[in-house]
Amino acid sequence: MSDLQAxxxxxxxxxxxxxxxxxxxxxxxxxxxxxxELLAVLEPHFEKEESVVMPLLGALRPLSDGKPxxxxxxxxxxxxxxxxxxxxxxxxxxxxxxLIESVRMAAAKVEKGRALTVMDGxxxxxxxxxxxxxxxxxxxxxxxxxKAKAKVR
Length: 153
Ligand SMILES: [Fe+2]
Ligand SMILES: [Fe+2]
Fold this sequence. Notes:
Number of helices: 5
Bound molecules: fe (ii) ion
Mean pLDDT: 94
Strand content: under 5%
Shape: elongated
Distance between the termini: 27 Å
Order of helices and strands: HHHHH
Helix content: over 70%
Low-confidence stretches: none
Number of domains: 1
């Protein structure tokens, strides 16, 4: 089995956020409309994270146990993709933050407390990614690349 499997805890977090957002969207009104716009950016963004960032993070545990990465070439191609997508992904976060503000404004008018809580959760999610998960995924990729280079020598 590949080491490069998304950690289930992270997949679950995405699924839960997505479920809550779809629910808010389905309630309609101004808040639902704002959530729909947010989802249009967030859905492809989540997909990219699940196919590029999360698989690299799956290798954190075996690596921290001192085990070598079982599929370094796959890790390196993910690393290459993440390196080139990184600026775009941060831009998407900036876009998401703006859209979160629109949802908050719409929700505040109708006292939608739950929408505000979901927005707090989503904002925190993006912050954890920027501060911890994206850099950790980059480290895994850089480590795999270093190992592969060492092997060639
Ligand atoms: Fe995410
Ligand atoms: Fe994200």
